[in-house]
Design the sequence.
């Protein structure tokens, strides 16, 4: 059974721990089975690539590495990092909301 994660693709998040602590970025991909997310411009690593048909030059390529979701917190519309809750709206749909401001997160 897969567990629900508070982070979704397209969310703006703040990093709570690690080398990129305090930085913000947009979630590019969520790896649900590993409980990790790839965030734009965060946790950059250097990959050494051999020359191939796709990259005839080869060399060193900078790319984003996954970050565990426990080290991420969603930034709400006010620009503050906030915890996330789930509740039913008036149409009986489950929506995510900021626990700090109470605003619904799209």
Sequence:
């Amino acid at each position: 059974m897969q567990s629900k994660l508070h982070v979704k693709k397209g969310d703006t998040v703040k990093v709570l721990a690690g080398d990129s602590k305090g930085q913000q970025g947009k979630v590019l991909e969520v790896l649900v089975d590993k409980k990790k997310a790839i965030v734009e411009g965060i946790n950059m690593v250097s990959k050494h690539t051999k020359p191939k048909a796709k990259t005839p030059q080869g060399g060193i390529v900078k790319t984003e590495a996954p970050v565990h979701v426990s080290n991420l917190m969603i930034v709400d519309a006010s620009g503050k990092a906030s915890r996330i809750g789930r509740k039913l709206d008036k149409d009986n749909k489950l929506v995510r909301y900021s626990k700090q401001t109470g605003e619904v997160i799209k």
Summary: The longest strand covers residues 24-31.
